[in-house]
Amino acid sequence: MSTLVRFGVAAEKKLIDQFDRLIEEKGYGNRSEAIRDLMRGELVTEKWRVGNRQTVGTLTVIYDHTRTEVEKQLTGMQHAEHGHVISSLHVHLDKERCLEVIVLRGKAKEIKHLADRLLSRKGVKHGQLVMTTRGEELV
Ligand code: NI
Question: What CATH number does the domain located at 54-132 have?
Answer without folding.
Answer: 3.30.70.1150
